[in-house]
């Protein structure tokens, strides 16, 4: 059998042939696995591999483009409904149907105020940039290489714990592991989650809303709440002012004109959206009062002491300020005033619910005089990272507090005797 290295038998001149390749039925086969020999074949004949890579990437790229286009369909639908409602209310109702000039002016002024605030908050919710974790939550180049080479999960966790020792994180997975995103390759801050639709980790992620084609999180949660509020007021105002003319058209008290169709459907659409938005807005008001996200309402965050649904609750007023800011005058304006950086959040005493009323009485306080109180539970936000603290550190801390309490008690006794 002639050698394949002979130039007369080579179908591709200039191609360097490897001894492992055998010519069989006009196809090339190699005893080595294709994955292990890809680099060798790519060096010798790039055309053997390039089509396979392109065939894999082309469908995914087309799929992503289709997803991006389809993601704007609900937004376009809402925009068309709002434009039609503006035309139906301003022209068909106020201009052509209402006869009183004073009533027209009042209706138009209030309508445009609610319309502007509704569109403004909706625009901010859609186009607010997503808040992603900062660079300090990404692994260093050396830690990343070690993490990728390591296949054992327990050693991967040791690498993550070492990298997260100076980060302000207090939540873990259900198995008490560091929350790490393999997709974004970063350690997740508290309340941060990966959005599969946006393919990014979002700070304080609440949910991905298809009606705004954006993730609702730390950067636009206030805008989302204001969008619900002003859309609720917008629909309520339209339904309340259109009702009398809806009844008049329905009972044929007004003559049939081209405005009848718009007025009838305007009332139905406004009432339908008002009922649906009211339930959603009420639910998110309850979440703000409890300082929870939609994800945390379904799955409680896990702390050092276990899952705690009220781990971030600081009381109703502080929870409200965390979303809307300290300045009350800016609460109803769609500008960003939320407190914090989105990467770290103050936590409460994990074993104590601050919303439960205190039940201690004067008799209990008198009964406890002269006794050594146990060490109080410390909040999670007291140290840089409570996840990496060992049990011995907590025992030593407890002994130090107990000694300090004993010394204080002795000092009080000496003072009373003197």
Order of SSEs: EEHHHHHHEEEEEEHHHEEHHH
- What's the rounded overall pLDDT mean? 77
Report the C-alpha radius of gyration, rounded.
33 Å
Strand content: 5-15%
Let me know the largest β-sheet.
2 strands, antiparallel
- Side by side, the strands of the main sheet go 1-2
Please report the distance between the alpha carbons of the first and last residues.
Answer: 114 Å
The helix tally amounts to 12
Structural class: mainly alpha
Helix content bin: 40-55%
- Note the overall shape: elongated
Strands, count: 10
Q: pLDDT below 50 for ≥5 consecutive residues: which ranges?
A: 1-57, 350-418
Notes on the structure:
With 418 residues, the chain is mainly alpha-helical. Helix content is 50%, strand content 6%. The protein has twelve helices and ten strands. It has helices spanning 38-44, 50-71, 73-95, 101-127, 141-149, 153-163, 221-250, 259-290, 294-298, 316-324, 362-367, 391-417, and strands at residues 22-24, 27-29, 180-181, 186-187, 193-195, 200-202, 207-209, 214-216, 302-303, 306-307. The strands form five sheets. It has a two-stranded antiparallel ribbon with strand order 1-2. Strands 3-4 form a two-stranded antiparallel ribbon. A hairpin with a 4-residue loop joins β5 and β6. α7 (221-250) runs antiparallel to α8 (259-290). The termini are far apart. Residues 1-57 and 350-418 have low confidence and may be disordered.
